[in-house]
Amino acid sequence: MSNITEALDERLACLVALEEVAADGVKFTSGAPGPDERKDVNDILLNATKDMLGAKPDLEAFTYGPEQGCETFRKELASFLSQQYGDDVSSSNLMVTAGATQGLHLVLSILSESSAPILVEDPTYFLGLRIFQKDLEREVIPVSADEIGMDLDDLDKKLVSLKRPPKSDSVQDRYWAVIYLMTAFSNPSGLLYSPGKCERLSQLARKHDVLVVVDDVYNLLWYPSSTPSGKPCKAPPRLVSFDKQSDPDYGRGHVISVGTFSKYLAPGIRLGWLEAPDEILSKLYNSGLSNSGGSFNHYMSRLVTKALQSGSVTQHLASVRLQYKNRMDKMCDLLEKHLLEGCSYRKPEGGFYLWLQFPANIDTFEFAQFSAERYGVIFIPGVLASPSEECRNCARLSISAIDEAKIEVGVKELCMAFKDYIMM
Ligand SMILES: Cc1ncc(COP(=O)(O)O)c(C=O)c1O
């Protein structure tokens, strides 16, 4: 195991131990919907189950499903996504997975060379790093990012400087390098890419013939505006919609979108999807892994079909969006009041995460121990999410699983902890 992987494992173990220490305190660490949202999901799935297994039971739900995933579900999902994005999503471009993580792993192992480096935003999704480095033993190349996303000039330079291997004879025609990122409400920094940036990223992927894998797991969690402009709010576009087949330099398709119901309903259902051009997708559902067992989550996809048809998923999303927005507003109002000089953040427009920057000399990994032990407040230290081991002065605060009362206590305690910490 490499030193980087060992260090990440050690830090994660340390974080788990600190979560225990702060068990009765305030945890800003969760990346999943909380107890209030789960109650609503219980009702949605109970009704869907009655519908599916009640008077006229759907016995097909108990079989192996088709490799690409149940067609009825894909059609429902396509219509749901089309409505959410205000864009045409086709069921033939969707494939069922057992969540974003499984989809990501499948894409990397089937579509990219086993030696393909993975270029990531710095900071990035910290558990993704373990998949890349520990499971797949890939080289991870950090690309610097600021508050508007990945530095695309740096990305271009890095891709130019990488040695592209001679074209392999592999029937799969795998990609020689991969870019992994989130363009909407990213984990950990809450970033949102502009359409112009998405356009350029898609062009760069074509120019270098690399695959961009986008973890589109938070896109539908945009915060409704408190000053309605009269225009209907829509989710920010997926990068995959910028890779248009009608473009003269389209090539073979260079973007794949990874989706999941983990953040919109519940992670326990392990239901997700991939969206990609036909040719790319067919390589995935014709893989050995897909052929042995068929759909990666057939039963649950049949069940969620019922929930989508009833409109309850759309309703649930509308309600959680508002809750998350209120929580984030609360957190930012409190930070505004209590945060010390030298600390800064950018208020996100959706999702779960706020990226808090402390003064450059602060090591938030060390501060997290102090804050958990003395104040019972815990967050994700920035270094965990940074393949370059930079971002040592940053912290990821999540609002996904705590109510506004806890946020109030937590932010005040965190700011007090910091005051004490710098006085030491
Ligand atoms: C960026 C990102 N990708 C993937 C996941 C996990 O998704 P899933 O539960 O669908 O595997 C998370 C959860 O925190 C995430 O933040």
From TrEMBL:
Location of the Aminotransferase class I/classII large domain: 25-413
A Gene Ontology molecular function term of the record: pyridoxal phosphate binding
InterPro entries: Aminotransferase_I/II_large, PyrdxlP-dep_Trfase, PyrdxlP-dep_Trfase_major, PyrdxlP-dep_Trfase_small
Taxonomy, superkingdom: Eukaryota
Annotated protein name in UniProt: Aminotransferase class I/classII large domain-containing protein
Pfam families (UniProt xref): Aminotran_1_2
